[in-house]
Each structure stands twice: as structure tokens, then as C-alpha cells.
Protein: guanylate kinase
Amino acid sequence: MVQKGPRPLVFFGPSGSGKSTLLKRLLKEYPDKFGFSVSHTTRNPRPGEKDGVHYHFTVKEDMIAAVERGEFIETATFSGNMYGTSKRAVEDVRRSGKTCILDIDIEGVKQIRRTDLDPLLVFIMPPSIEELERRLRARNTEEEDALKKRLEVATKEIEYGQEPGNCHITIVNENLDKAYAELKNFVSQNLKDNEPEPNASQE
Structure:
């Protein structure tokens, strides 16, 4: 299959690792180069979240039907809610000539690696599980059971992210500026290959 645009940039890592902060910073600094793929979810919006901006909010029946029609690249279920990346969300970004950024979990990573999108996989991890727990507790957004579940999932995610061949780069987010500099360096080295030659035929 002919590539229709730059390779997607996939971020994954435990909740609280700081991946959202890093990708937002990248999008803010390079708005013309990157576009964010807006995921679908069946969970309710949190305060301040807007439909079509933070997520496409939908209901489970509709999302299951769309998955059965083959409209999704990857899907996952967490805490009883479905999450997923639709083919259209990625295509919309790629059609604009931008590099599509995705923020997905490890199940999504496994699924997207089986597609022909040939993504660049960036694993963001916390300095330690203890630090991750401290960050999640500081958010004060979840009950104790949900927090414990997140930490269990995080342990598995860290194991997966550290296995050779599962990502192109691992960034330990202990210091945000240092982690961002590492990310920028990786992106500039790897996305140069996506730029079309100046005299390349556009046909």
C-alpha cells in the first residue's frame, strides 16, 4: 500500500507518565506539522472536556456497531468504558499533510502494529511506580480501587514498553524539559524521512 502521508506518531505509557503534557507541548510548538487524532470513548465527559476536541463521545451500542463495520484501527476497554481510534480520525489528519499523533494504550499499540500504518512508537514512562502513584494521588480524581487498578495496569504497561522491539524510543519523564528535548530530537531525526522530495512527482 502506498503511504498517504507521514508515519503516525504513537504515544503510549501509563496514565500519569506525562505523555499528554508532552504531546500537547509538541502540538503547541509545531501546529503546522502535527495533528492530534481524536479518539472515541463511551465514558462521560469530564468537566471542561468538549466533544470532538478531547474525545468523540459516543454510546456503547453505536461504537460496537462501528467496530463491527471495520471503522476502527484499534479499540480497548478500561473500567467498563470503550476507547478507540477510528480510521477516519487518522485519515483526516493525514489528508491535511500533517503527522498524525495518537495517544493509545498497549492493547491499541499491539493492534496498530498489525496495520499498514507503520507508526513510530514512543513509550513515555515515569521514573518509578512510586512516583507514578504520587502523581496519580495528587490528581485526586479517582477512588482508591480505581487508583490501584491503574497502578496494576501501569506495571504491565512498563513491562511491555521495556521489551525490546515494542517501541522505537523510551523516554523516562523525570524532568519535563529534558523529556521534551529527547522527544523533539527523536521526532526531528525520524520524521525527516517523511518529507517528500522537492522535485518528486505529485502524481
About this structure: Confidence is low (pLDDT under 50) at residues 194-203. The CA atoms of residues 46 and 74 lie 23 Å apart. Residues 144-162 form the longest helix (19 residues). DSSP finds seven helices and nine strands in the chain.
